[in-house]
């Protein structure tokens, strides 16, 4: 199984410095349609969690995820997901509700930083039958630099908040900020309520993989081009099974 990791969906791109992790709404639409044209099934992570056998029975399947919980996920991505009837999971930051991307953009005036969803905006997003939420921690902290106590706090509090506010629209899945993890981090995840944790390592997800090292392919702005996406899929052996 292939899992794709998006960040921003917007046009025009506000900050050229992050163009590589942005895609236009039309690029997202082409991305989804290209996958389906190639015979790939886009599945919900909820279905995979509820039916782990899907990983073994359906080889040519993919899932879409979005990191950080930017407002453009609601305003730009959601209309495309709904129009295309395409499931996706958005990993959000309960400790930065209505805040901004301070971890990468602290050098910018606050008004120029990328805005994150408020609680009400998250609720609007999660009301869609095509979207589920996962946790990205509380503050987008580097978990490899936190103490075990600090990690447990982020894991437990993000789980508590999201489960209380979103119920079944929240999945017990976690995405490492920046994709950073270590054996100690995995040890804390194993003691948490989360069932899976997602990296940004480039590989296919197989049933035998560690559930706390799930790989994802980062989506870049050029991947909205069907030919470039096709070349990427062929390069990683998608059609060899």
Give a structural overview.
This protein is α/β, with parallel strands linked by helices. The chain is 35% helix and 16% strand. It has 9 helices and 10 strands. It has helices spanning 25-37, 45-50, 54-57, 71-83, 102-105, 119-126, 148-166, 183-190, 226-235, and strands spanning 2-6, 8-9, 22-23, 41-42, 61-67, 88-92, 131-135, 170-175, 196-198, 217-218. The strands form 2 sheets. Strands 1, 4, 5, 6, 7, 8, 9 and 10 form an 8-stranded parallel beta sheet that branches. Strands 2-3 form a two-stranded parallel ribbon. Helix 1 (25-37) packs parallel to helix 4. It is globular and about 45 Å long. 38% of the residues are buried. The mean pLDDT is 92.
Give the SSE map.
Blueprint: E1 2-6, E2 8-9, E3 22-23, H1 25-37, E4 41-42, H2 45-50, H3 54-57, E5 61-67, H4 71-83, E6 88-92, H5 102-105, H6 119-126, E7 131-135, H7 148-166, E8 170-175, H8 183-190, E9 196-198, E10 217-218, H9 226-235
Parallel strand pairs: 1-5, 1-10, 2-3, 4-5, 5-6, 6-7, 7-8, 8-9
Helix pairs in contact: 1-4, 4-6, 7-8
């Amino acid at each position: 199984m292939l899992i794709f990791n998006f960040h921003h969906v917007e046009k025009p791109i506000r900050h050229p410095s992050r163009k590589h992790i942005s895609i236009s709404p039309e690029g997202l639409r082409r991305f989804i349609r290209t996958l389906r044209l190639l015979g790939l099934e886009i599945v919900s992570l909820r279905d995979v969690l509820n039916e782990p056998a899907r990983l073994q029975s359906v080889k040519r399947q993919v899932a879409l995820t979005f990191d950080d919980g930017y407002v453009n996920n609601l305003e730009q991505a959601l209309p495309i997901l709904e129009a295309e009837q395409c499931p996706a999971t958005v990993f959000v930051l309960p400790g930065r509700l209505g805040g901004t991307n301070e971890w990468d953009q602290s050098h910018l005036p606050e008004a120029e930083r990328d805005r994150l969803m408020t609680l009400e905006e998250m609720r609007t997003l999660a009301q869609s039958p095509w979207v589920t939420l996962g946790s990205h921690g509380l503050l987008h902290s580097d978990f490899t630099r936190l103490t075990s106590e600090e990690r447990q706090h982020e894991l437990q509090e993000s789980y508590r908040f999201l489960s209380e506010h979103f119920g079944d629209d929240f999945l017990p899945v976690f995405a490492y900020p920046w994709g950073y993890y270590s054996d100690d981090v995995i040890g804390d995840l194993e003691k948490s309520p989360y069932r899976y944790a997602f990296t940004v390592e480039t590989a296919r997800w197989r049933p035998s993989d560690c559930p706390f090292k799930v790989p994802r392919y980062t989506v870049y702005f050029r991947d909205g081009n069907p030919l470039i996406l096709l070349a990427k899929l062929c390069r990683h052996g998608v059609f060899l099974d």
